[in-house]
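Please go through the sequence line and token line underneath and see whether the fold suits the sequence. See right below:
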Amino acid sequence: MWRHPCEDFRISGVQYFSRHKGEVNCCSFSPDCQILLTCSDDGGLYLWHAVRGKLLAKVCGHTGPVKCCVFSKDGHFFASASHDCSVGIWSVTPIERLHTLTGHTRSVETVSFSVDGKWLVSGGWDNTALLWDTQTGIKVREFLGHSAAVQSSFFSTDSQLLATGSWDCTVKVWSLDCDEETVTLEGHQGNVACLCFSTTGMLASGSWDGTVRVWLPKSHECVFVLGGTEQVWVRCVAFSRDGLTLASTAEGDTGHKDSAYGCTFSPSGALLTSGSDQLDLEEEEYKHRKDCKD
């Protein structure tokens, strides 16, 4: 019987990926679970063999901290967002920079591929989100409406909707059909630092107000609120591929010596990876699943 590569990953306790020279801001698995991509305040992008933990390559090209990194859904490309105000689109084989996207006037904090791979969105401290054609590197649209920095972004699984989260405490859901109205989701009392759509159409948002909110965007409805008992900064949210499990990382999360910044599920859902500012990356087996109900 065929087994996914991740299912053969045996971990004793915690495995450390400790070649970073600065805070680990984000991490992303390739779709086949063979490569783990991480980015750091040291200005580098790191590609690791996900099973053996071996560093495959350190990619340089940004002149400032790299704030966000993500694989395309086909695994052929990855993108990076940097404090140097630029966005990079890179090929995996060979590893080379295909496009340098410039258009932001301040630090770029978030970058996301659409599921179909046609579009890339970036957002940052200039209060804007920009939509790029991934093939040409041409900017095709500006999303204006946030009154503060755009900190997070995510496309729906059908590539028709884009969500952005901001320091203005709101989530905006944009349709790629310009004729449709933009939805504004309100309720957070702090910066919306992270977003994630599930395969079932729910949208999770995490905030520095210490809460994770789960929304039905089309009806503007907040289904439920998680957390909020302590004033911790929620740094990242991630749905498993089947949409049944939601993970989050926050300031003071256990397992790290310091705050946990990023988390992502492996494609099989067997592993959950998180990164922190202790200059390493921890990867541990995810054993407990909690169903998210509509």
About this structure: The first strand starts at residue 15 and ends at 16. The chain has a mean pLDDT of 83. The two ends are 34 Å apart (CA to CA).
